[in-house]
Amino acid sequence: MAPVLTSPVVSTQWLADHLGADDLTIVDATVLVDLGLDGDTDHASVAYATGRDGFEHDGHVPGAVLADLVAEFSDPDSGLPFTRPGAARFQAAVAALGVSNDSTVVVYDTVDGRWASRLWWLFRAYGHDAVAVLDGGWSQWLAQGKPYDLGDVLPTPAPFVATERPDHWVDKAFVESVVAGDERAALVSGSPRDEFDGTSSPLTRAGHIPGSVNVPAETLLADDGTLARDPVLRDRLAVVPDEPRTVVYCASGVSASVDALAFAVLGRSDVAVYDGSLAEWVADPAAPLVPAAA
User: Fold this and answer.
1) In Å, what is the CA distance from 122 to each residue of 74, 167, 211?
2) 157 and 17 in one domain?
3) Do both 185 and 150 map to the same domain?
4) Helix %, strand %, coil % of the chain (to 5)
5) What is the DSSP string of 42-95?
6) Catalytic residue chosen out of the listed positions 250, 260, 265, 271
7) Are residues 15 and 133 in the same domain?
8) Is the separation of the CB atoms in 10 and 132 below 8 Å?
9) What CA–CA distance (Å, rounded) separates 102 from 193?
10) Do 151 and 116 share a domain, yes or no?
């Protein structure tokens, strides 16, 4: 029988105690980001790669498999980074990892939890609730002296059927309707404060969607990289207005998933991710930003 989850996050000790359990799949969702300066535009050029090299040579949780969020768990035809894959693509990618509908899944990354949170959200959005993020990820696993393996892991494919939950996402049209006052929802940016304020941006225009509040993903973490605990977590989310729905976004919908995870830990089920996020928003010259682009 698969281990039973009681929270959207699990501790390193919980995972260590369940290593080797039937129907438990551990997934490394690491993505590495290479920032370079585009000399023609003075904006950062961004390249993404999976964490395969580190997975094989630096180590991974025993039995873990590596997920490719750059290609397999994104839509290659969207023109935007990390757009969610369609149900068929997600289903095939999950099955290839050896995850079935009966599996309990624990996701981690070697960065700061944003990639694990993104994959966690994808699982939830496609109907799989038996999924959790490893609290503190790889850094906490090593800090606690837990065992690790080297080398590649070749999963045995398993049957998986995805069930879409459209309410987990909103599109640009919905956000526009919120800005116009035709829909009621709290807009929450998970971007760093300087990006929210418009003093820095990896995109061609800087700022945030009008009416948004800022809860940077990194402020939801404790000093050791684990998710902050209540009441600290609740206090940091207290700036979010009380609305019928909460929409989280960032530059590409990845860091926003940390905010979504924090809301879920507090028992909130009214949260959606604006999948296109600012990457889509700023591509429309008519879409307003605060502050206005210089």
Assistant:
1) 10, 12, 26
2) yes
3) no
4) 30, 20, 55
5) TEEEEEEEESHHHHHHT-BSTT-EE--TTTTTS-TTSSSTTPPPPHHHHHHHHH
6) 250
7) yes
8) yes
9) 40
10) yes
Please give the model's pTM, rounded to 2 decimal places. Answer: 0.95
250 tagged catalytic: yes
| Within a domain: 3 | no
Beta pairing class for 213-214 and 186-189: parallel
Three-class SS state of 273: strand
The contacts found for 32-35 with CB under 8 angstroms, 24 or more apart, are 32/111, 35/202
What single letter denotes the amino acid at residue 240? Answer: V
Sheet with 131-134: list strands edge to edge: 9-10, 131-134, 104-108, 24-28, 65-66
Cα 41 vs. chain centroid, distance in angstroms? 28
For residues 253 and 277, give the distance between their C-alpha atoms in angstroms, rounded to a whole number.
Answer: 6
Q: Are 219 and 227 in contact (CB under 8 A)?
A: no
Helix H segments across the chain?
A: 12-18, 52-57, 87-96, 114-125, 137-143, 172-179, 193-197, 232-236, 256-265, 277-281
Q: What is the pLDDT along the chain (294 residues), one digit of tens a residue?
A: 899 999 999 999 999 999 999 999 999 999 998 766 544 445 556 789 999 999 999 999 999 999 999 999 999 999 999 999 999 999 999 999 999 999 999 999 999 999 999 999 999 999 999 999 999 999 999 999 999 999 999 999 999 999 999 999 999 999 999 999 999 999 999 999 999 999 998 889 999 999 999 999 999 999 999 999 999 999 999 999 999 999 999 999 999 999 999 999 999 999 999 999 999 999 999 999 998 654
Instruction: Give dist(CA 74, CA 86) in Å, integer.
Output: 8
Q: Dmax over Cα atoms in the chain, in whole Å?
A: 57
Whichever domain contains 207, its CATH number is 3.40.250.10
185 belongs to a structural domain: yes
* Cα–Cα distance list, 131 to 107, 118, 154 (Å): 7, 12, 21
